[in-house]
Amino acid sequence: MKAFRVAVALLAAAGFAWAFQGAPVNEMCPVKTDQKAKPNITTTFNGKTVAFCCNNCKNTFEGDPARFASRIGPQPRTALNSIGDAVKAAKEGQKPAMILFMDAGAKSKTWGEMLGDKELDESMGKVAYAAVLFEKGSDEGKKYSVSSAPAIVLLDPEEGKVLKTMTTATPKSVKTEIENAVKKVSKK
Predict the structure, then answer these.
(1) Which domain holds residue 11?
(2) Residue 12 burial by Cβ neighbours in a 10 Å radius (0-12, 13-18, 19+)
(3) Which pLDDT band holds residue 186 (cuts at 50, 70, 90)?
């Protein structure tokens, strides 16, 4: 049974990595900045897909990614690994916590990609963001009334109160709900 749980945990982690991969975050090559990037020549940097104009540039980038990181635009968001970490960071930053409940399904992959949309860059900086594995019947699922994945839950970290649960989402709707949550938390 223990081996089964370890295997499930490894598959879930692989599913999360897969879910956060997506289309390249850049249009221009970060090495030869005057060249258009090709979406079929890519590498992964900080969990995001970065495209290059040629394999030489890809190899140069991989040799020293920090040197070129500023050229790929805003740095990707990093999801915290637990609800507790998100609530703690939200309290410290006096902002809402945003929890993405995910599974390894295609819809969760789409949501992970959607949350990487450049339109959300500013809004995502206003929340403490965590992505967690949804387990049917789990205590966390019950506590936040999440019955399936994917789902986004916005929390008031001080009260532990759910401000909004989203079971359908677009970048525009996520942006709107983050702004609403920020207003509710900042009124205190």
Answers:
(1) 2-72
(2) middle
(3) confident
